[in-house]
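Consider the following assembly input.
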Amino acid sequence: MAHIKAVKWVTKDKRRKGVFWPSEAMKKRAWVSDPGIYGKAARDQVAFWAARAEEGLEWKKKWINAYEEKKKPGAFKWFLGGRINASYNTLDRHIRSGRGGKTALIWVPELPDETTKRISYEELHRDVNRLANSLRRLGVRKGDRVGIYLPMVPEVITSLLACARIGAIHSVVFSAFSGESLKDRLIDAEAKVLITADGYYRRGEPKTLKESADIGVKGTGVRHVIVVKRTGRKIPWNKRKDMWFHEAIKREPDYCEPQFVESNETLFILYTSGTTGKPKGIIHDTGGYLTQAYWTTKWDFDLHDDDVFWCTADIGWVTGHTYGCYGPLLNGATMLMFEGAPDYPDPGRWWKVVADNGVTVFYTAPTAIRMFIKFGDKWIRKHRLDSLRILGTVGEPIDEEAWLWYFNKIGQGRCPVIDTWWQTETGGTLINTLPGIGPFIPTVAGLSFPGTRHAMLDSQGDEVGTGETGFLVQKPPYAPGMLRGVHRNPKKYFETYWSRFPGYYDTSDGAKRRKDGTIRLTGRVDDVMKVAGHRLSTAELENALNEHSLVRESAVVPKPDEIKGEVPVAFVVLKDESKASEELKKELVKHVDKAIGPTARPSFIYFVSDVPKTRSGKIMRRILRGIVKGDSELGNLTTLMNPECVKVLHKTVKKG
Ligand code: ATP
Ligand code: MG
């Protein structure tokens, strides 16, 4: 990759410490640099999104009505009567405009001596069309569900788009979930076909996947299993059901007529991460979702024709759907997919991938950033990261230390960090700073995306004042990418999102608006503590703890207390476990005291080597809450990445 001249995309605010703004170069290049966009979009949100849908996507038939909201809570529609196809918009459109030869996907295999694949829009189109024909041959019709249980291989993109091509609904299940978890989801989604693989590589070792897929399929309505050959190892084979992916598409024609669907028909079902409980099958529509995917990708990451966009999220999460597939491809961009573990063969691997492929936009999660901080800077220094222009983060509140590390070490002080708040339910980002507008402030996500509005409410449903923490809600008209239901569970849809605050979408997250109008997320509403009448947010407390030079990561939860109602309890993971001491506990308490105030003082601090996390890497405070209360029954643990730590934590807390 030719050396790219490193341009400074951000400048420091000379008056306010820790605040950054876009440089002149960034403003000049950016699609949007005029803050007036927010006001303009707010004047008529529906007109704003209608213009976006028209400009960004190609419709077979234009909608009759751009937006409609019924009295019933959560019953709203976008682009009624419009007809559209997601695969046509991600592929055919670019080929027609003469960009078929452009690389759509750079696929980097985990094995370092295996060759990186570059797949053009034309090649991707061919495979998508063949697979779509093959699915049709298997009897998959519009509206049918197809389960996808694949590792990070190019076929995963082919599979999503092939479903979309024929109007089938894909439901991806993260490949690290067990066969049993897969089964639950396949049954809930009523899938007819499953696309999986024989296995994948992890840390250089071939792993099997087909065995879990078989467990998952048993007793479900899945009639056919299409298997991608990745490792070539011997796998169990069921002659009646199984077929190889490469054989299934070999004899199929290169073209499959796209099935245009009404904009509000379902594009996919995806289960949430399961941080707070049982995952919900979130339903996303087609036209609205694609509109938000297109524009948030383009504006948040300021995506241009020469960019190489790498979103590290697995396709099993919504981030993988929107920013690892639909968003970049709708934009005709080049995106990168990496198959393996971030630290194989060494902790510098991701940075080597960035340097080798000239990645310009890089989007990851705080959990990954904290892991790289732990590995140490030497792994970064080995690689030239000059190609990077924009950094993004999503998934959890990012603490100040991690933000600054990301900004200084990975972005080398040149690249803005775009902290994007959103959810599986919102389909695309909703609260973040735009790179050409700024400001970029650690722990502050930013403003509502143009054409959307949020508010912070108290428990009575009244808006709280500036600087006060409240329940984060979205005001109507709702963003076009918003969920349209919970699969087979309209009651849950209503109760979870539309019942607590009538007339708003309830995010279940807490937030506060700062004086400059920007929004700071304070964590999940369930995680908020009430200590002696004061509301304390986990994000702020954890941020304060993480600031301490010896702390790698922390999780704070409330413990019931007779006098104060609740008191904060902190689980702290140290950078160096041997530094744990009673002295350090006292020091940390003092540190929190200074950063937030005496009410925030943790009553207990436990030094632990691990905290429970979801498979998407998020801290599961629900489990910790149960542990401090002494609950022996902790509910559903299947979405945990590290269930083994739960026992250890129980013991630690008992010992005191
Ligand atoms: P479940 O809904 O099953 O409990 P989950 O909420 O973890 O799982 P996701 O939809 O993947 O499932 O995550 C969305 C949540 O992640 C948000 O509601 C918020 O709590 C958190 N989050 C995401 N991005 C950010 C961010 N930039 N800052 C703060 N929190 C974030
Ligand atoms: Mg959630």
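Residues 272-276, 279, 317, 394-397, 419-424, 445, 507, 509, 521, 524, 616, 618 surround adenosine-5'-triphosphate (ligand 1) (CB under 6 Å). Ask yourself how this observation constrains the way the partners meet.
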